[in-house]
User: What shape does this take?
Amino acid sequence: MSQVKQLFQVILMGFLFSCQACSTAKLWEDADPNARIWMDADKTTEAALKERGLHYQVYNEQGVSGFLIEKRGLERMKDYQLRALGTPVTLVVDAAATVVVVGVYVFLTDPVGTCSLIEGLSNGHKGHGGHHQVK
Assistant: This one.
């Protein structure tokens, strides 16, 4: 096997292992209903947060100051809905990426065998229309 082919296989496998379930994990991280919202101290005051009845934590470390504000019911519901509606889509995207990477890897490992397998699968289903004929 040529060095270029081996390098390409290593890159493909690295992509597969580093990005397995990337979309789904990113969605769940971004739409975390329990995450707090960051607000810089120069954008609001503690008095304003108290006045609005928000639950928050004061953060003032390493020269950074602000507030970590707890999400309210509507914001949490939006995150739950985004997770519920987006997860099936991201699972398909993650699975498709995995199938493509594995398919390319298999093809590069044995191109003749892969083409023969595909041809055999396609010939085995020709003319049947998905139904078995009984004699």
Observations:
- The mean pLDDT is 82.
- Residues 1-34+86-119 form one domain.
- DSSP finds five helices and three strands in the chain.
- The two ends are 49 Å apart (CA to CA).
